[in-house]
Amino acid sequence: MSVIRSTVDSTGAEFAANREAMLAKLADLAAEHAKAIAGGGEKYVERHRKRGKLLARERIELLLDEDSPFLELSPLAAWGTDYHVGGSVVTGIGTVEGVECMIVANDPTVKGGASNPSSLKKGLRAAEIAAENRLPTINLVESGGADLPTQKEIFIPGGRTFRNLTNASAERIPTVALVFGNSTAGGAYLPGMSDYVVMVKERAKVFLGGPPLVKMATGEESDDESLGGAEMHARTSGLADYLALDEHDAIRLGRSIVKRLNWHKLGPGPKSAYDEPVHDPGDLVGIVPGDLKVPFDPREVIARIVDGSDFDEFKPLYGSSLVTGWASLHGYPVGILANARGVLFSEESQKATQFIQLANQTDTPLIFLHNTTGYMVGKEYEQAGIIKHGAMMINAVSNSKVPHLSVLMGASYGAGHYGMCGRAYGPRFLYAWPSAKSAVMGPQQLAGVLSIVARAATENRGQVYDEDGDKAMRAMVEQQIEAESMPMFLSGMLYDDGIIDPRDTRTVLGMSLSAIHNGPIRGAEGFGVFRM
Known about the structure:
Layout: H1 13-37, H2 42-50, H3 56-63, E1 70-73, E2 89-96, E3 99-106, H4 117-132, E4 137-143, H5 151-170, E5 175-184, H6 189-192, E6 196-200, E7 205-207, H7 211-218, H8 224-228, H9 230-237, E8 242-244, H10 247-259, H11 299-302, E9 312-314, E10 322-329, E11 332-339, E12 342-344, H12 346-361, E13 366-375, H13 379-383, H14 386-399, E14 404-413, H15 414-419, E15 429-432, E16 437-439, H16 443-460, H17 467-484, H18 487-492, H19 505-516
C-alpha cells in the first residue's frame, strides 16, 4: 500500500506543546495581517467611504466569481520598514468569469494609494507571477502615483511596471485596467498600456500632469475633467474603452471583458476525481516542534496535503535524510522533495538530482518542503565530494524547467536553501509557515564562526582576547540573526509570497497548481555539465 500510515499522536503532550507554539505564532501573524487589512486607519477609511467609494478588498470581492477563493500574495510586504504593512497595494489570484486572473488593487486609504519602494517590489512580483503562469491581469487603479519623497528608489526601477504590461500584451496575455480614481503622472501609463480600459464617470482622473503642473510648465489654465476626466477620455482622447456610471458598473464591465476573452488554459487539467487526504490536515499545527533542532518526519506533512494520503516514495532506502516521491494534489500530478533530518549529504544530493531529472522527463511539477540546515561539512564529507554532489543538485534545480513550488516549514539555511529551490532559484510560488527560519546559517553557528575568526586574529597579533566582549558580541549577533531569519521579516522583504497557516497548505498549493496550469508544462531537454 502506498497510502502513508501516520504515527502522530494528536492526544499526546508533545503534539499539544507543538500545537500551542504554532497557534501562538498564528495569532501574531493574524495581528500583522489585520494591519494590512485596516488600510490607512479608521480616519482615512471613513473619509474614503464618505466619498461613496469602495475599499480595495471590497472591489476585489465584487470582481471575483461568487464564493470563489482569493489567494492573496505578499500581504506582509513592507513589514519591519517605515511603510505601511501591505505596501499600499493588494495583490493575489482569483477567478473572474471562470478565468484565473492576477488582481492588483491600489489601497487609496494609504497615502492616496501612492506607490513606495515596497509597493513597487510587490507589484513587480505580481507581474512576474502573472507572466510565468500566463495569468491575465486586472488592475484596480486609484493612485496618486509615486510617493515623491521615495522617488529615488522607485523612479528608475518602476519603469518595469509599464514594460511588463506591454510584454504581457505581446505574449497575448490580456491586461485590464479599471480606473476608479486618480491615475496620474507615470501612473497614467498603466491604463495607457493596458489592453482594455474602463473609467468611472466623474471619478477617474488620468493625466500625465495635473492642473498645477500644467500651469507651472505651460501657463495653461485647466481643470481635472477637461484635462483627464473619464468622459473626456471616453469621448475625445479615446483612452477609455468603456465609461462606467459608478464603481459597481466598472466591475460589471470588467467581468464582461474577461468573459469575452475566449481564454483557454494550455496546461493539462487535473483528474476529474480524487480523494481528500486520509489524515486530518488540522494536525499540521502540531507536527512541527517549537524547537527546530528537533527533527520531524515530513511524511506526516505529505500525508495531510496529497490526495488520498497516497505517496509513492522513490529510493526510500538511499539518502534517507531527503524524502522523494510521487503523488497528486487536487488532481494534479506532483513530485515531492522533503527534508527529513535537516542535513543534506552526498547521497541525498545525488538522489535529488536523479529525481529532478525524472520529473522533467515526465513533465511533472515539483514541490519542495524545506527543513534543512544545509549541506554536510567536515573533512570526511569534503573528501567524499560533498561540494560536487551538492553542485549537482543545485545544477538540476537551476536548469529544471517544470514548475517548482516551495514551502518553508522549518529551517532553510545555507546552500540547502538553494538546493531546495529557494527564492533565488525561481520557484513559481514560495510560501512559509510561521515556524520557518531562513539565513546563511543558524544564529549560534554564525556567532560562533565570528568569535573563532576574531579570536584567531587577536592571537595572531599577540594580544589577549576580550572574553567579556566576546560574550556580548555573540549575544548581539545571535539576537540579530534570529530576528532577521524570522518569517515576518523575510516576508516583509518579499522573500516569500506569503506566510500561510499550515492547515491551509493543501488549498494554497492546489490553487497555485491550478494557476500554473494556465501555461504549458514541459520539462527540460538538457541540463548543464554534472561534475561527477
